[in-house]
Batch of 4 targets.
Target 1
Amino acid sequence: MKGRIIAIEGVDGSGKETQSKRLLTELKGIYPLVERKSFPDYGSRSSALVRMYLEGDFGINPMDVDAYQASTFFALDRFASYRTQWIKTYEEGGIIIMDRYTTANMVHQAGKIGDIKERDRFLKWVSEFEFSLLGLPQPDITFFLSIPEEVRKKLVSGRKNKITGDDTRDIHEGSEDHIKNAEDAGLYVARKFGWKIIECADEKGMKSIDEIGDIILQTVKENFGV
């Protein structure tokens, strides 16, 4: 029995880490086999090219590395994680909660491509490369956490760099154009592939962690027949 994968996507500051950890806690009381993974896997050697890219070794502008090239770095990091860390849990029928997954390439890298026909061609390539060629399992449910730009800026202010641990920004975080394009592309992709879009803020401001988390949990239960 194959397992199931829940992917949580969104731009930086949207709450992916918080919600994936909350969902892990909730599902542990329901399912015997549940794991959480976060990508990029900075603790693994497989993320070396990702780190080089995000630290600016190939260019300080995200557009210096095209969508196909950058996607390959992130995809191979996921392949290594799958084959060395969670393949057993997945093949035994477990649930893997992803704080970013293959779907992240569809968000961040698709944002580099403005032409819709070219973007769709890229999205088709990503699916074939990661799911067919590399053999990564497809997600059963994907959530896209959407937040207004002004809210996002407040949430990420003062956050530490996940690679260096200091106050510097990687080339994605440091480019407002990249983040805006990724948010726009994420909404496009979410609608195209039927992801669950969660508006994390309303006219009153940011919704609570529990309010957003309850939507995620209820959707999972409905889809998994609980």
Note: The chain has a mean pLDDT of 90.
Target 2
Amino acid sequence: MTINHHTLSDFRVDHSEAVDALFTQVIVALVEKELVTVNRISQDGTRVRACWGARSLRRRNRLELLLKQAKTHEI
């Protein structure tokens, strides 16, 4: 099987929910480790404001809340 832009596009369409969930988890993990800062997340031209401080990411409950908000793009 050859991987090309059609193959990748088909994969993204067929697994869109899983890919979105994975990217959301990666962003949350990077922010939690203070490897990146997020000021604004854009998807399909829709701007979503993100305002996270280092202290707000130190507890599991807070991370779970951020993950839930990120999944619904409410941050």
Note: The beta strands are 40-43, 46-49.
Target 3
Amino acid sequence: MRITFLHSIILLFLILLGSCSKKDSFLIHGDLRCVNATTAYLLQMNEYGDMVVRDSTEIHGGEFRFKGKVEYPTMYYVQIGKRKPINVLVENSDISITGSVLLPDEIKIVGSHAFEDLVYLQKEYGKIQNEKSTILIELENARKKKNRELTKRREKRYNQISDSLLQITKQFVTNNPASVGAAYFVCTLTQTFDINKLKEIINTFSPSIKNSEYVRFLNEELLLNQKLSLDSPAPGFALLSSTGDSVKLSDYEGKYLLIEFWASWCKNSEERNKELRILYDKYKNAGLEILSISLDKEEDEWRYGIERDSLEWRQASDFLYWESPVSKYYRVQKIPYEILIDPNGKIIAINPRRYIMDAKMRSIFGF
């Protein structure tokens, strides 16, 4: 009897231990209605904003499963047929996706604490955006009626709203410093706010998640912006061009200039140059200039890369590799790396993602 009781205690302890231990892998179980597709895809966005397939699995009666492992919570997208991908911040846990593909806004995702944190902050952001829209309408009406006092109050409130989003986010991160979901949300804010405005929030994240993809991105952005900031004057320079003459930043006064840092040995640079050729062909007649500054060490390799990638715009290099003073002026930590400068010589984009760059071009040139 005593042995049986002892065994029961040990078994109970093991069960409790197993239930409290952290999983080292994830299982995504989807159970969706109105699914005609036979295959589900697990997608992830790469650094250029493109969706790449990480896994695929068969769908049976609307059910599917993905198994895997992540070091830190990571944003993935579940693609069912041609439907809009379902985004989920995947962590090592059992995650369920339920609902109907015909009602994407009502699909429920349970099992990821990081995703729950993200959803909470996104809802707060949505509330603030709704309030901003309401105030904008009130502001326009006040201006039409030439009500100066009401216009002044509405303008003041509108300017306060963005700061309130930062305060909400800061408070959440203070209370949840190890939330990767919050880190992902702050990454999305870099498209709206200058990175230096987010510095205090970024520094609040716990060291335990410093190596997560999103905290690393935020810290890299801070580092790259220590001497650079949007609307600040671009640092001047003079380099030797591929034709043997000197190329200076002042040569591009009055023009939109995209500076690309690259190298012939960098595979990502080769891929990016393909995209830049398309960008250049589309906007060169509208006024876009591109200057590529290479971090190559050997001139022969540099010239080979120019010919291989069919680069039509001006090329420059000082063959000093990562020790190039110009790369340090612009806080280059990785390549390819880009800076967009307006006709007044001010920086208007710092290493933007491809889709952000495309949006910038459309905004500037109107197509």
Note: The longest strand covers residues 26-33.
Target 4
Amino acid sequence: MSELESCEMRTKIFFASATSGTGSMIRILCRLGGYCERESKFVDRFMLDGRLAELRDSTVPQDGKFHVFNRPIDFNRQTTLSNYDFSLNFRDPRDRLCNMFHWTQSHPAPGVSEDVLNERRRRIAEQGIDSWVLKQAAAEIRYYDNFWWLINELRDRYKLLTYAQLCLDFDGFVDAAADFVGVDLSDELREQVEPERVENLAGNPKWVGNRWSGSDTMPGRYKKELKEETIARLNSTLSEVLSRMAKIDSNYSHLYLEGV
């Protein structure tokens, strides 16, 4: 494909919450669409270069490629949305908070010394998961603001690809992903993405859970990891977020609305 042909293609954005599952989704979309996974991580390049302060004033390049935007709070609302095709991935915030707690204990932090990182991990571990997630809950409400803004602005011009669907309807997720990148699914393509199916992740060397602890593969982890009183407080604090998700991702509304 020539450079001119590439630029004439629609630039696609995977707009996602940072949590378990996004890595599998990125690999599926890259494999189906023929994109280079390393080149797709638009936001990661800002993070690794120490340029996060610039992100809110930057737009995704219009290059006919696939880009991952997994810092939703930093999305530039001056972006001309009609120039891009969007897929949106969000996750139950109760699960995401549990996931993030565990990731603070294992995930590397570029640019942070080991001494500083270990001290940060120690302080968070001493708080315990229940205390930590409750302190993060208010910020979690703001975390999704740009999702709601995008959905309102895009109306029906986006493809929904959520963590719940990835885990509970893998084949349906792959169908929707193929539709987003604009390819006809062949048996060969289906076979190539099989390593990302939940049941196969333990044997997938690229699965994040095989590198860092704290990753998970199913909605509802919060019910196993948090105290009942913690869950009740989260249900109250995050009720509007959960209700919005239930309405948008309606096939899994019962999961978002449990206890709300």
Note: The beta strands are 11-16, 66-69, 84-89, 158-160.
